[in-house]
Amino acid sequence: MLWFAWWVFARSPEAQVRAAQAKLVEVVEDRDWDAVKEFFAENYTDAYGHTRETAIQDAKKYLGGFFTLTLKTDQTTVRAAKGQGMVSMMIRLEGNGAGYSQFVPGHVNQLTEPWIFHWNNPGPWPWDWQVNLIHNDQVR
């Protein structure tokens, strides 16, 4: 039990952010929108005009039609300090489905710049990390 407590609470902010990012990728692949919403800060905003709610709505719109979906991540860089973190990663989509899903991988996979995720942890617990901004310089 002592080892578990040490492992949970003594992990570096970088390790905590890396774990949160991996879990976010997993719940997006599963299209578990309630779980995805838990990762987004209530004050989420981005350059595309999204709030927490509209970001989830658009994710459902563009990713909800996939029967299978895998996010292939590469070139991941994590920087973090107490309460704040940033992840830079290339994302490639693989999957098949109906509707918009037929066009989404082609659009996403042509991007040559990484996605940037800005994380914060407003609470005392190492599992309370939330995304408050996501952007990619090539997406307008």
What does this structure look like?
- The protein is an alpha+beta fold and 140 residues long.
- The chain has one domain: Roll (Nuclear Transport Factor 2, Chain: A), CATH 3.10.450.50.
- The chain is built from 5 helices and 4 strands.
- The protein has a 4-stranded antiparallel sheet with strand order 1-2-3-4.
- Helix 2 runs antiparallel to helix 3.
- The longest helix has 17 residues, at 13-29.
Give keywords:
140 residues, alpha+beta, Nuclear Transport Factor 2, Chain: A, four-stranded antiparallel beta sheet, 5 helices, 36% helix
Short description:
With about 140 residues, the chain is α+β, with helices and mostly antiparallel strands. About 35% of the residues lie in helices and about 30% in strands.
Question: What is the strand and helix layout of this fold?
Answer:
Elements: H1 2-9, H2 13-29, H3 33-39, H4 52-63, E1 66-81, E2 84-97, H5 104-109, E3 115-120, E4 130-135
Antiparallel strand pairs: 1-2, 2-3, 3-4
